[in-house]
Amino acid sequence: MGNRSLRKNMGEKRITYSEYLHLAKLLDLQDGGVAGDRDISADELHFIIVHQSFELWFKLILNQLAEARALLSLEPVPESHIPLIVHHLDRTTEILKLMQSQWKVMETLTPQGFLAFRDELGTASGFESFQMRELEILLGLDNVQRPGGMDPLAHFEKLAGESEQGKRAWDRLVAASQKETLSEILTRWLARTPIHGSSPDDEGDDEVVRGFIEGHLSSMEAHDNESLERHKAMGTPAIEKVKVRFDASLAAAREYLLPDGQVYRPRAGLLFIESYRELPLLAWPRTLIDSIVELEQQLLLFRHHHARMVERMIGRRVGTGGSSGVDYLDSTTKARIFTDLWQVRSILVKRESLDDVKDSGFYGFTSE
Ligand code: HEM
User: Fold this and answer.
1) Does the CB atom of residue 93 touch ligand 1 within 6 A?
2) pLDDT per residue over 267-321, tens digit each?
3) What CATH number does domain 42-119+126-195+265-343 carry, 2.30.30.40, 3.40.50.720, 1.20.58.480, 3.40.640.10?
4) Which residues of 130-162 are buried (b: 16+ CB within 10 A; e: fewer)?
């Protein structure tokens, strides 16, 4: 073995740090503008490098999330895969947190410093970041109506007809749209959650799940009634309005769990995991859910911090991409991708008010 590796090493050509990282190429890309024939200021170099760093992180995020999606798409997902999925998601979250502090670096550019070269950007804008759009598509964000007629995908379709680069970006987005999203795959996985020991293909599963849901709604109602009594005892004004609110939230919980009166297993599975967090078998599933909630929260904070940085930099003026600027950016913090994961939080009930889990041995407890 020694001889073989010695021979191999002797025949090997040295690879340097710079070669391995393509540093010459990488460091040649901060020249500003398409032609790269313009002298750029220290401020503009800063602006370009911050943007390029973000795009590199986006590239890694896309890679991590594609890995997580592939692992979660197996049916069934081998238990050993869940920690790996969580690992990819948590790395993504850490990158998003890091990117939030990068806005502070961007903010060292003064409004006047930015105005000095802003016109050079023409209509170029982060709105045209195809990696950001791919990230949204991969996660499962609907290309929901954004305000002021801002439609990112329609814009990319238009750019496809204008240049080779535009076409490549559009082809990427089309290819991304044809794959199952992380949100869809998560929903399929949640639907398979064993509830009180019963799985989707088991006989009588529908009744078990319905019983679990009805039991939960009863606990919720009992708790709401107690809260209402407390409000009455405390003399809360307009108590009838408080009652209307409790009634509405109970009706919404019923519609969430039994849309059109039918069992919707993904939400029931999610509720089961969130309710019985102490069960050993559910420990990794709930960690996975927590990781996704954390990821979406950090993505929202990323958008929020970008908007605050922009407000500081350009006030309320129109963006280079033609949007209303800060108002538009703030509106993008309203949408949620993993809506079920957020909504379930409104209907949880404290553990001691819930029925005990049936078949607890199945979930890793050795005695009932
Ligand atoms: C001086 C710094 C910056 C300013 C003033 C700024 C301003 C804006 C504005 C006004 C928009 C809305 C679209 C438009 O009308 O242009 C926007 C969108 C966007 N920007 Fe920035 N930006 C800055 C830096 C960055 C950086 C460093 C990134 C990192 C990649 C970035 C990423 C984005 C993204 C992804 C969008 C699209 C948001 C969406 O539509 O969901 N921006 N930016």
Assistant:
1) no
2) 999 999 999 988 999 999 999 999 999 999 999 999 999 999 999 999 999 999 9
3) 1.20.58.480
4) bbbbbbbbbbbbeeeebeeebebeebbeebbee
